[in-house]
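Supplementary Text 2. Reproducibility record for the structural model of the 204-residue chain.

All settings were left at their defaults, and a single model was retained for analysis rather than an ensemble. We include the record here because the model underlies the residue-level annotations in Supplementary Table 4.
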Amino acid sequence: MSSRLAVIAVSLVSAVIIALSAVAIVLVLNPESTPPALPEAGRDKSDGPNLVMEERSPPPVSQEPALDQEPSVGQDAAEERTEAGVRQAAQTTLDFYSSGAYGQFWDSWTADAQKLIARDDYLRMFELCKPIAENMRFEIKGVTLDGDDADVQVTQLLAAFTYQFRYEGGRWRYIPEQQAQADYTSKTVDEMAAERRASRGCAD
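Retained model, structure tokens:
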């Protein structure tokens, strides 16, 4: 009886071993159970970018304007050769003077006028004698246009003046009065400042 049980037990163990072996063979041979293959280097995939190497196009470079290209619109654009152009240019130029921007006022002169007195000397004259009417704006009352020349009638407080402008290099430029031109060529800055101070034309 015991020998018969032993045979049965051996048979059961053998059956279990065979079953386990069969399951192992099935797992090895089943392609769905194997892990997916990694993508090959350098090959694009249809479902996403290549993770090994991906070429990117460089960002577009903004184009700088050519050095010889004319500016479209700006402060250097030519002023209108009209009465309206004179009026606007004259107001800007006289505002330089009334606000104490004497360097910019000198920059608005004609080329011939700038030869009468150097910019630094002109600025020094106002350091020695500050005008009484500084910060008092000119008001343009009328413009008389004659080709490249223009007379501009202005008032400042109760005083009335007529100033000359000339169209030069695409801009309306200021021409100093005859007396001022004579002083610039015959007197020093110290002499002009002393005369203005003596006539009580200085603020301090």
